[in-house]
# Entry
Amino acid sequence: MYAQEVKSTGQGVKSLEEMEPDERAFQEKINAEIKIEPKDWMPEGYRKTLIRQISQHAHSEIVGQLPEGNWITRAPTLERKAILLAKVQDEAGHGLYLYCAAETLGISRDQMTEQLLSGKAKYSSIFNYPTLTWADIGAIGWLVDGAAIMNQVPLQRCSFGPYSRAMIRVCKEESFHQRQGYDIMMKLCDGTPEQKEMAQDALNRWWEPSLMMFGPPDGDSVHSAQSMAWGIKQNTNDELRQKFVDETVPQAEYLGLTVPDPDVKWNEDRGHYDFGELNWNEFYDVLKGNGPCNKERLDARRKAWDDGEWFRDGLMAHAKKREARKMAAE
Amino acid sequence: MAGDTDKLVRDLALRMGDNALILGQRVSAWCGHAPVLEEDIALANVALDLIGQTKLWLGLAADLGAGANADDVAFLRDARAFRNSLLVEQPNGDYGATLMRQFLFDAWHYPMLNGLKDSADARVAEIAEKSAKEAAYHLERSSDFVVRLGDGSDESRARMQDALDALYPFAGELTTPDETDDALAAAGLAPDLNALGEHYDAYLDRVLSEATLTAPEGAVRKGGKAGLHTEEMGHILADMQWLQRAYPGATW
# Structure
């Protein structure tokens, strides 16, 4: 997850015969499923697409701390508080590995941070929705982490070694998060009528944004073909979205909740659930910055960065003093 | 006499547990807002340790009659029943204030837990054994930051001195014994706070001097051990206990 609408910068897919020797060797490696490592030759478009995708993914983890962090101080039991803290901490950890993976491609973490804070770089628009009740913490774990896993499992096989390895670690933790989210939902659905209503309301609000996490329909998704040829992307957006719906609808039924889409029904012929059209205007609108929390999320990240400047500078000043003292003593 | 001992152990468990809970609650509010990503991760670790310790201490207090279970003790008492020191309920402030509060607490918490490892009560000793390892790491971390930021830039030094000026008056409560502390020490259940206080002051002197910071003079502000808190406490509870209070009897 968390990299929707990554436009790859390749010029369309070339055949092996059209390629120069370097590029041909590169493509043959990918075709043979040999990982590309940071020092290997790679086309500029591949590098740029990956920097965009990995940094967008990292930014999503960082901004993703905020909607859930919103409930840490209000978690209803000591156990839930600890689980939520650990989860948000994992997200910060994912952000860290991903920034490191992107750095191997020749961009610094400070540059990426600058791009996030200036609004130039995107992050997953799912995090621009507010967490209004405790059930939202359950719904995010269940649906948002569920969709993330669906997206990330194939990325474990991504052609770029550092990204692939980061995804292997991240996926293990995400599936744990999803189970915890579902566990919150189960507890609510087994609880009082008010708790069950809270759970249904959360599903109503998070369902559609979660389906949009897979990105626009294949017909509208630009440069997907190049990303697939480069082994950056393994499945189309619509394939993954369908897989998510197929997996999630029975889970909602098990909880006794209703998926907020009257068109959801099992299609015997296709062997999949059908589902209704999504409101893509909303998706593009949130992506443009007009979602319910876009401003709050960026403001919070900017404030953390600006307020922390003296702290970072203070540590640098100390390191310099220490170095100078060491030199003087020698 | 077993009844007296149980009451003393319960009081001790509430003091230790409430300190861990309220500080954990404060620290956890930084999650996602720290000055660098590594600090988001490190602070979450500290908060997680403290919440984990809270479960143990308040679980023991519950076993000894403070409530049905650790969660009820944490989420269903009002401010006057909390026994944490005033220091831990002080607001997060800037990152320097958060680190200074942590340092003043850790410098007491670690030797306290170390002493509690020898408690005559096996349940107390067991919790202390586990928690002391975590507290040792917290103290190492917070002391290191106080030194680096105190002896850092002009601005970081000024901020750390401001934080020390604001928070130091609350530190003395940790090492000033009341009747319960004296009884706990006399029964071999907890270390003698007077002796611990000497060690505490010496440790602070050493770290603050390396940090080029000066502890202010003035009266000790206390009351938390008797449930006489600052006005902060009600707001902390309003946030922390909101869901439990809004949906009474629900399980989560």
Notes: The longest helix of chain B spans residues 37-66. Residues 2-246 of chain B form a domain with the Ferritin fold (CATH 1.20.1260.10).
